[in-house]
Amino acid sequence: MILLNILIVVLSLFFVFGTFITLLNWGYWWVRMFDFPRLQIGFMLLVLIIASFIFYDYSRIWHYLMTGALLISFIYQVRKVYWYTVFAPKQVLTYKGGETEDSFSILVSNVFQPNRKAELLINLVKKYKPDLFLVLEADKWWDNQLKSIESDYKY
After folding, report:
1. Quick check: helix, strand or coil at residue 153?
2. I want to staple 134 with a disulfide (CB 3.0 to 4.6 A). Which of 7, 33, 108, 149 is the partner?
């Protein structure tokens, strides 16, 4: 039972630390890595909260402090994840009309430098004729291949 309590404490400290270290404006990878698995961290916090209620007898003040820190961390993670769920209000309205003169089209392509199928991209650009065409991760080879459509997209 003592080993289980130690495991709960160690995991709790790790996930509480991982939750609140992201509040610091540090660009270190070991800090920023906690920004991404928020759903997984939230799930683990929930498991640890339940484990705390089951295995702590709340005879010591640190039981309350640890459970409180877990609850605050869980609420923080849920608030961060909420905006990416179906429960959050939509920020972009659904377009219900046809094309108008007030609209423009964008084509963005991440070409992935080792990819050498430039003709497929050029055909796509010629087919859709976007107003704005952006190429990501292009190298000198891609720059040379896209010269045939450069007159339509000078910038």
Report:
1. coil
2. 108
